[in-house]
Amino acid sequence: MARTQKDKGSAQDPDRDTTATAKPSSRRRSANPPAVNGDPVKPAVKAASTARSRARKPVPRPATTANTGPLPVAAPTLDPEIASGERPARRHGLRNMSEIRHYFRTNRTPIFFVGASAFNLLGLDRWVRGFSYITYYDSWQGAHPRVFSPIHKPYIEWQSGEEINNWLLRHHEVRAHIARLTPAGERPKIAMVFFDEETEAICEELGYELILPAAALREHLDSKMVTTRIAESVGVPSVPNVITTVDSYEDLQEQAEKAGLGSDLVVQTAYGDSGKTTYFVADASSFAKNRDDIVGHELKVMKRINNRPIAVEAVLTRHGTIVGPFMTEITGHKELTPYRGGWAGNEMFPDVLDDVTRRTATRLVRTLGDRLGAEGYRGFFEVDVLLDTDTGDVYLGELNPRISGASAITNVTAGAYADVPLFVFHLLEYAGVDFELDVDEINDRWEELAAADQWSHMIIKHTDAVVEHIDVAPPTGRYVLDAYGRLAFSQGDLDWHLLGSESESFFLRIYGPGDYRWKGADLGILVTKGRLQTPTGRLSIRAKHLIESIRAMYAATPLPPAAEIDQYEQIGTEPAP
Asked: Bridge-partner residues for 181, per DSSP?
């Protein structure tokens, strides 16, 4: 059954996905818990955090909410080859891919990815010397040599991904860690998914270089109205639409009819993620349900089409836009998420688009990327492309001016191993060195190599409407299917880059023993070779087996109902175990 554009939480779905792995938005200070998509982790939603705090008396818990792992026994030390000293003078810029690879393999400037988890760019340290991760949640319990998580983490009810990152940057342990790994005379570089003007001020005060476009520019470009106008200025089409305001359903009908959009409409406001501000209006009743969110606001009113959403990441360099592989989205499956239309992963496979459509979509993304340069943008971004399944037309869906959840498998493609991972081109743009790139050649090569790759990842959420204390959880690492077809832990591992077949998977744990899980909480991310959906968009038998196997490795104790907790608190006793 064909899905309609961006059907990720509609007006009929008030319980939409607002958890960590929702598709990201650079909007700050959401009233809901942060959508650290692609930065899969999550502070508790209010219902969970309320139950959690009220349950402190009857349910013993550790002093901190995060699983901090063992205390460190030794401080990280500088590699002798990147210790302080004079940097060798360069006689020329970087002239080819070989010199670019050599430059990053001998890099001496520390680069830190800061986030709730290390998910988005995990494994990039294989290509870039001095690249490491600073996270709130440590999925390896201190065992990953390039993941640092502070020990002191008091409970905080986070309101946004930006808030988590700003807290980390200010933390005394984090500042000491960055100072310890920064050679004299170097300025540490910081990358992250979510940041704001406050982040920029923190980095400026501490002497860090935030290697991302300005927060104000990202905020500007993140508007669906701005994106649509910019794209149309260079001939990049959107689904037939009109940008307007309306004061009634009759007004909406009249304007849509005049624009030739019909009566079955998709209405979007400027900002929102995972369908939060996307409304499907086919009649007066569906309009009435969302009247307060529609009337008086600038709207993008679109014709509703049958479409297949395709995600792709790209990097705008001074020499042009490099386009990564195209992939489909895994959305809305009840086995993965309790939220209708909630994003839960991506799939990359050779025939995600046919050759003609892939070339059309690549040209669309390159044209849009090059146009963003006129706005002052440079570096990494993600585009949702909509393929009309009735006509074959390719449209711009939306622009996400940031690192995205798709980065995890973008960086393990055949193109990445032939050249460098896509995000390294972003690092190159912010490296402060001259370089040459044949963008046409790279795009042609990556398009050909796309036929060699099949990767998928899915975010596994807690789907029950109950808050539970996690007693046992599967560790981060590599898992294999044994002789009986059972999923079994094989060994601890740092990332998924060495997976060789569909019989292997990598599970990145987010919440572990001592943490809590609640409806919509991200338990972890599973990455594997091969596809996880059937051609008709259903989860495959293999995918369901993997999900069920991971869930079966968890054991948790439900918290008592809030009313029961109140009773015990009033009489000064605790419930029996």
From this structure: none
Q: What is the pLDDT of residue 453?
A: 80
Q: Which of 100, 158, 134, 119 shows the shortest CA–CA distance to 208?
A: 134
Q: Is the pLDDT of residue 458 over 60?
A: yes
Task: Indicate the range of 205-219, 249-263, 272-286, 380-394 predicted with least confidence.
Answer: 272-286
Identify the sign of the CA torsion 430, 431, 437, 442: negative
In 268-393, which residue ranges form alpha helices assigned H by DSSP?
284-289, 291-294, 355-374
CA 458 to chain centre: 12
**Cα(first)–Cα(last) distance of the chain, in Å?**
48
Mean pLDDT of the chain: 83
Number of H helices, E strands in the chain: 17, 23
Q: Which phi-psi region, left, alpha or beta, contains residue 40 (left: φ > 0; alpha: ψ -120 to 50)?
A: beta
The residue with greater pLDDT, 59 or 544, is 544
Angstrom CA distances, 334 to 37, 342, 544, stand at 18, 9, 11
Q: What distance in Å separates the CA atoms of residue 78 and residue 83, rounded to the nearest whole number?
A: 6
* Contact status, residue 522 vs residue 515, Cβ threshold 8 Å: no
pLDDT confidence of residue 181: 95
Q: Which residue has the higher pLDDT, 180 or 44?
A: 180
